[in-house]
Amino acid sequence: MAEVETRHLGEPSSNQVSVPLSPRRDNDRGRPRDGGDRYRPVRDRARRPSPAHQRSPPRQRTPPKMPTEEEKQAAAKAEYQKLLNMRSGGTYIPPARLRALQAQITDKTSKEYQRMAWEALKKSINGLINKVNVSNIKHIVPELFQENLVRGRGLFCRSIMKAQAASLPFTPVLAAMAAIVNTKLPQVGELLVKRLVIQFRKAFKRNDKAVCLSSTMFIAHLVNQQVVHEMLAAQMLILLLQKPTDDSVEIAVGLTKEVGQHLEEMNPAIANIVFDQFRNILHEADIDKRVQFMIEVLFQVRKDKFKDNPAIREELDLIEEEDQITHRVELSADLDVEDGLNIFKYDPEWEENEAAYKRLRAEILGEGSDDEEDDDDEDESSEEEDEEQKAMEIKDQSNTDLVNLRKTIYLSIMSSIDPEECVHKLMKVNIPAGQEPELPSMVVECCSQEKTYSKFYGLMGERFAKINRLWCDLFTQSFEKYYETIHRYETNRLRNIARFFGHMFASDAIGWHAMSIIHLNEEETTSASRIFIKILFQEISEELGLTKLHERMRDEQLRESLTGLFPRDNARNVRFSINYFTSIGMGALTEEMREYLANMPKPALPAPPAADDSDSDSV
After folding, report:
1. H or E element that contains 583
2. Which of the listed residues 37, 197, 281, 455 has the most CB atoms within 10 Å of its CB?
């Protein structure tokens, strides 16, 4: 038999066994097929660079074709529209990505550019209206005229009506702003009056007292500013007093207080007719004692010549009487509120209309030849503002201001004798913008640290929530935050927090829709959250009574918000909710759920498996 040639790694020794090499080799990689670990000169040769004369010349790559400006614009528009569609579907889009695309779209005739300008106009108008007050109204109005109010008059009316309804004490300021705009752009003032009249008519038919109060108050101050004729206020008073009820008389009293001085000066005959009607209602109509007292107070206000309810406050008397344009709008007239102005519409003559408003703005603001001086002043002031902004940012990052704010709130609470005094003190605290949630948080934290629950905190929270809708929303957000993190608190603090929010719900300081965050089932509750819900409902029941609580739970408007507390998705969750409320002594709240469970179709039993032939044969 032929002897196979062998080869070894290194020098062979006497004890080393020779291993035959396999004749089969991997031609691609140059290594034995047997998986050995021997030196591989073939692989090393493959890794050595080849000589220069053997190298192939480098391949020339053609550069990609640069897109034209039209192609860039088209791509940016398509991407922007795609992102908008994604965002409307609920997808989060980073703002930086949107801004980058918006910067690429410069074609003013395109729909995408006009939509971007429309969104910017809406945000700007809304922001200016929200930050106006007595001290800065003279500076805000010129900024407002910088925006295209002819194009955005629908946005202006909607935003100012929304801001007024959210904060009634600012109604005189907003009416003064609307009056100034009306002197230069009367179509804006007329549209605002029409929308307020339609809003009042709808609210009156629906018996919506809150909307009626806000609408009448705004119209009253527009009458005082002579944006609309006083006959509109007289027609509204006649309508409210024609068939007197407690609510209609209360609304009429509020309207008369606001517009009474103006009526006495401009049309005493109408004022006398209105007060005679009030006198007849006071003596003859069957109304509540509270409303009777309100009418008596109104007569006292008239006797004092409306000294506490002036038609126009001195600091808001900004318009010369001859400059004002008064609109005559009747209560029963067929009015067009032009709802189409609230939504974006493509304008094929965008640039022409913008140029026309620019000329109109120059006439309104009196922009002259000294623009360069103004620009220099603006540059200097902007540099100073940037420096102040940087200093403020550095200061804020140390959290010193936040600690001092919490300390001030805590000391104000602890040094107060009763809730009224405490609210009065806290309203004077200068809370920086964006840190308003600290106040509700401090109130709840102070309440939780008491040994036993003190109603002092509940009354204080109630008064804050009823002062302004801002505080109501912040306390609602606070309830949601504390419910989600209630497992972090010990039992005593948990009990105090639950009783605090129980009082807030019972007094209607916060809306019952906030309970939509509660999902009463075995999977989504913990022992801490179940204790919290128990104490919460016990506190509400103690203040309202079980009967009223049951009526509130059956309210059709709240039914959707309470589906988490009273689920009907499956029998297991229904039984859990029934057993829970029964165990805490509130089984009466689950009567409808018991009927629902009894009438619930029982799940069908699974069909028995068919017997195999082999089984039957074996039997």
Report:
1. helix 571-583
2. 197
DSSP bridge partners of 186: none
> What would the two tokens of residue 37 be?
């670990």
Structure tokens at 413: 């609470």
Q: Cα 363 vs. chain centroid, distance in angstroms?
A: 37
The separation between CA 73 and the C-alpha centre of its own chain, rounded to angstroms, equals 34
Contact 76, 69 (CB under 8 A): no
Phi, psi (degrees; rounded to nearest 5) at 436: -60, -35
Residue 596: alpha-carbon gap to chain centroid = 36
What is the distance between the alpha carbons of residues 571 and 257, in angstroms, rounded to a whole number?
A: 57
Closest CA relative to residue 180, chosen from 214, 224, 225, 216: 225
Secondary structure (DSSP) of 315-376: GG--S-GGG---B---TTS-----GGGGS----TTHHHHHHHHHHHHHHHHT--STHHHHHH
CA distance 499 to 505: 10
Beta bridge partners of 31: 26
Among candidates 72, 74, 80, 118, which has minimal Cα distance to 97? Answer: 80
Rounded Cα distance between 12 and 22, Å, is 19
Q: Which two tokens stand for residue 502?
A: 């129980």
Q: Which residues contact 166 (CB under 8 A, 6 or more apart)?
A: 469, 470
What is the per-residue pLDDT across 163-187, written as a single tens digit (0 to 9) for each?
999 999 999 999 999 999 999 999 9
CB-CB neighbours of 541 under 10 Å: 21
pLDDT in tens, 449-476: 999 999 999 999 999 998 888 899 999 9
What are the φ and ψ backbone dihedral angles of 519, each rounded to 5 degrees?
A: -120, 100
Taking Cα atoms as reference points, which of 563, 467, 476, 484 lies closest to residue 524? 484
Model pTM above 0.70: no
Q: What's the mean pLDDT when you consider all of the chain?
A: 82
pLDDT (tens digit per residue) in 392-425:
444 445 567 888 888 899 998 998 888 899 998 8
Ramachandran bin of 90, using left for φ above 0, alpha for ψ from -120 to 50, beta for the remaining angles = left
| Among 195, 148, 225, residue whose Cα is nearest residue 329 | 195
The predicted pLDDT at position 156 comes to: 95
Distance linking the first and last C-alpha atoms of the chain: 70
Q: What is the pLDDT of residues 309-361, one digit of tens each?
A: 899 998 999 888 888 899 999 999 999 998 899 998 988 888 899 999 999 99
CA angle 440, 442, 448 (to 5 degrees): 105
pLDDT at residue 32 greater than cutoff 70: no
Q: What φ, ψ does residue 131 adopt, rounded to 5°?
A: -105, 5
Cross-strand bridge partners of residue 20 = 6
How many alpha carbons lie under 13 Å from residue 545 in its C-beta half-sphere?
A: 3
Q: CATH fold of 130-342, please?
A: 1.25.40
- Work out the average pLDDT over 63-73: 67
Q: Give the position of tokens 């910017």.
A: 120
Tokens of 112: 């995408």
Give the residue, 47 or 538, on which the prediction is more confident: 538
Which pLDDT score is estimated for 467? 87
DSSP 57: P
Region of 215 (left: φ > 0; alpha: ψ -120 to 50; beta: rest) is alpha
Dist CA 550 CA 568 (whole Å)? 18
